């Protein structure tokens, strides 16, 4: 079998897999959000599938949410060189933020990552 025929078969197989995936996803029902009383989130119109025409929230509006950012500083001046959003999290105590494992899986040592993430209010 020549190379061109193999590539064509691979191409058609990839297209078929994508089409199958799209048909499965399109056939799924929309999930329902948890009631406001259970999660503390604001009431949303059920027709909204994503944020469209939103606006920035007041800093004190969602007090339990945290943004984890990676900050690179100049070693001599300690000034911030770059600040990049890493992940989100939820405040579960005065000193603890709950986040997903992939947000800190790059950290190889055992123990807290307090030297890498510092609160900024």
Automatic annotation (TrEMBL):
The keyword Disulfide bond applies. InterPro entries: Peptidase_S1_PA, Peptidase_S1_PA_chymotrypsin, Trypsin_dom, TRYPSIN_HIS. One of its GO terms (biological process) is proteolysis. GO terms for molecular function: serine-type endopeptidase activity. Signal peptide: none annotated. Residues 51-105 form the Peptidase S1 domain. PROSITE patterns: TRYPSIN_HIS. Transmembrane segments: none annotated. Keywords: Disulfide bond. Pfam families: Trypsin. This is Peptidase S1 domain-containing protein. The lineage of its organism: Eukaryota, Metazoa, Cnidaria, Hydrozoa, Hydroidolina.
């Amino acid at each position: 079998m020549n190379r061109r025929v193999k590539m064509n078969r691979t191409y058609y197989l990839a297209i078929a897999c994508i089409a199958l995936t799209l048909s499965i996803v399109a056939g799924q029902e929309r999930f329902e959000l948890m009631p406001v009383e259970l999660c503390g989130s604001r009431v949303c119109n059920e027709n909204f599938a994503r944020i469209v025409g939103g606006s920035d929230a007041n800093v004190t509006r969602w007090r339990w949410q945290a943004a984890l950012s990676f900050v690179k500083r100049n070693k001599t001046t300690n000034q911030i060189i770059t600040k990049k959003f890493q992940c989100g999290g939820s405040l579960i105590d005065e000193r603890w933020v709950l986040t997903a494992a992939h947000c800190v899986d790059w950290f190889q040592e055992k123990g807290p990552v307090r030297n890498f993430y510092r609160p900024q209010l």
